[in-house]
């Protein structure tokens, strides 16, 4: 029976590897089943030990009774009552036969108890081994899940995830920076042209004025402004005289 149980337990563990269910759940369930079976085996061993003790007690009682009736038969012989002595010896034979049967049964029970104890020891060692294996497999499964999840995240990140978005945004930022730089250059050129045109115009007017002065030609701009200045001066003189 225990050999079949051991084979069943090993088969249950081996079957886990080929099933699609959650390994952690299956491992926990299998270990719980092993624990339950171990409890039942312990109870069986305890019952075997109890039976052995009961047989020992019954054997001792029958031996005591056989001895008692042996003494009674002797007393009857001393009293000269052979019939009573025969009855006592017959009763003694019953207890002796019962004691012999109990001894045979007790011997068999003791052998069974020893076997059960050894099986229990082996099963306890196997359950402990199963517990260690369960813990290792659960740890490996958790590590495998963590690695798989990390690889999945990394795969998304390198292909169509955050890194891809970053690269696209970098391209857009570069485009905007180039556009802003171009606008800045265009705006700067326009201002330079305007200032250069003003500076060029001023230089030409200054040269024209110098040329007119060297030729004794009056400047039109000064002639327009002169009457206003003279009139203003005359008005000031009149106000002063008054």
The residue ranges in which pLDDT falls below 50 over 5 or more consecutive positions are 222-233
Characterize the biggest β-sheet: none
Distance between the termini: 149 Å
Give the DSSP E fraction (strand runs of 2 or more residues).
under 5%
Q: How many domains, as an integer? A: 2
Mean pLDDT level: 81
Shape by Cα distribution: rod-shaped
Q: Tell me the series of helices and strands, N- to C-terminal.
A: HHHHH
SS elements, strand count? 0
Number of helices: 5
The residue fraction in helices comes out at: over 70%
Q: What Rg, in angstroms, do the CA atoms define?
A: 61 Å
What class do helices, strands and sheet pairing give? mainly alpha
Short descriptors:
single chain; 5 helices; mainly alpha; 2 domains; 0% strand; 242 residues
Q: Could you give the topology of this structure?
A:
Blueprint lengths: L1 H16 L5 H56 L3 H78 L2 H54 L4 H22 L1
Describe what you observe in this structure.
- The chain is built from five helices and no strands.
- The termini are far apart.
- The chain folds into two domains: 2-159; 161-218.
- Helix 1 (2-17) runs antiparallel to helix 2 (23-78).
- 93% of the residues lie in helices and 0% in strands.
- It has 242 residues and is mainly α.
- Mean pLDDT is 81; it is low at 222-233.
